[in-house]
Fold Coenzyme F420 hydrogenase/dehydrogenase beta subunit domain protein.
Amino acid sequence: MPSMTSIAPHTKAKGLKPGSRRPAKELCSECGLCDTYYIHYVKEACAFLNQQISELEEIAHGRSRNLDDENDWYFGVYQQMTAARKKQPIEGAQWTGIVSAIACEMLTQGLVEGVVCVQNTPEDRFQPMPIIAKTTEEILAARVNKPTLSPNLSILEQVEQSGMKRLLVIGVGCQIQALRAVEKKLGLEKLYILGTPCVDNVTREGLQTFLQTTSKSPETVIHYEFMQDFRVHFKHEDGSIEKVPFFGLKTNKLKDVFAPSCMSCFDYVNSLADLVVGYMGAEFGWQWIMVRNETGREMLALVEEQIDTKPVISQGDRKQAVQQSIPAYDKGVTLPMWAAKLMGVVIEKIGPKGLEYARFSIDSHFTRNYLYLKRNHPEKLADHVPEYAKRIVNQYQLPTH
Ligand code: FAD
Ligand code: SF4
């Protein structure tokens, strides 16, 4: 753990005003830490100023990734991995609502006094509004992804002021890295962390560009996901699903949409959460769960009765598809829609499934992000890219310039 002064942060620092430049500059993911007096610790805590995943893994899980084990490169430290879905899905959740269900149980069974989660503002369904939920209604109102950078940690001052001692935080990798770094400063008896994987996040303006370039009806999209069938599924207000093949995305227009923080991120699988709930390591229609430590095990046990589970599978070979996607993305190649659809159908039949699909997605994003960092922030390559990510990237041939 890096050395941090023991002086109370509120006597030393004040959160920055909205809109002002953050210490991580363009790489800032707006995780919210700098909106609070915990900005005092930003140099050590910020995921983009001080990448320290392996040190924090030791503290959170008792060990860091075993670099001799390829599974650890990809998925981090875990005790158990499973595919699961809620027997009765929560209406309007991103998938079947396992995240919201666990949070509700933790609150009603008294494990925690509050849950940090993200609702949206009344005016805009995609504008994130982090809250500390104290009722199950408030947790359920935060269901579904806000596919935008969300300042979840901006509520940290409220946590201290509320006097809460037991807290659940739901969040994505960059938020959780900063949270772990200041965990001991929060005065909590117990912090539970429920993470989701996260990739390709955008600012609110970037989201608008993405929707307008990709969907036929951007204003009616309720939520979307990059699915295991190699298509983006947009769900619209009337319940209809629009599917757009990955290979037909207008990459030349979308290149600058993703936030620079997400183009420099190597923590896709939320390495420091106690429990991770995503989808990409599971077959279509199922969610993917990784229990990282004993706390995560305790959390998952709360919903055992509510979910069906099955073992994860791994089929196919991703390597060629990843290698081919590197120059295609780099040059901003867009296939005509008929070719993109055809390619989608073929790859869905013979392409990677289960954990191999997750590896496909991790490889594609890590190689892209490595190139981005090399070109835009070469001084950060050595320290910011974790060793496991370097090993993943080294499996491929990257353009030399
Ligand atoms: P729900 O019950 O609907 O709950 C969703 C929870 O997410 C809510 O509690 C809410 O507080 C929280 N949340 C919503 N938006 C944000 C945000 N912007 N920041 C922090 N917390 C938020 N999984 C994969 O396997 N592969 C991926 O590539 C992938 N990409 C993702 C990209 C983004 C931007 C996000 C936010 C999530 C991503 N996930 C990914 C996770 C996945 O989409 C689901 O969130 C997860 O499976 C939980 O589904 P659920 O139905 O259980 O969640
Ligand atoms: Fe601050 Fe978070 Fe931005 Fe880093 S990512 S500069 S900790 S708000």
Observations:
- The chain has 16 helices and 13 strands.
- Residues 9-201+262-314 form one domain.
- Residues 277 and 297 are 12 Å apart (CA to CA).
- The pocket of iron/sulfur cluster (ligand 2) is lined by residues 22-24, 28-31, 33-34, 42, 46, 48, 174, 178 (CB under 6 Å).
